[in-house]
Amino acid sequence: MSVVTLLKKSLIGIGLLSISQLAFAHYPLMNCSIVGDNIECEAGYSDGSKAVDYQVNMYDYDDNLIAKVRTDKRSIATFSDAPDEYYLVFDSGHEYPVEVDSVEITDK
Q1: Are 40 and 77 in contact (CB under 8 A)?
Q2: What pTM was computed for the model?
Q3: Are the C-beta atoms of residues 56 and 43 closer than 8 Å to each other?
């Protein structure tokens, strides 16, 4: 086998491995709703896996931390008090954290 053929096969193999890594990538997700007097956020990943024991932070629009809660064994973070305007952040350590603005949250 010539060096050129071996090099071509190696490059093709590296390219296929790179593409397959993209197919297995999973991204953080969070869905929040109002349940009674609480705000409940279910955090997880696009592959369906749960995010157990992760921190979800609540910020006001001046980026001040108001509250922080950890997800429970069901991947749910529950906030009992909230100001009129806020946003929630689930940062799982991936490139982009998930942010949910208070105006996006509806009753369950």
Answers
A1: yes
A2: 0.75
A3: yes
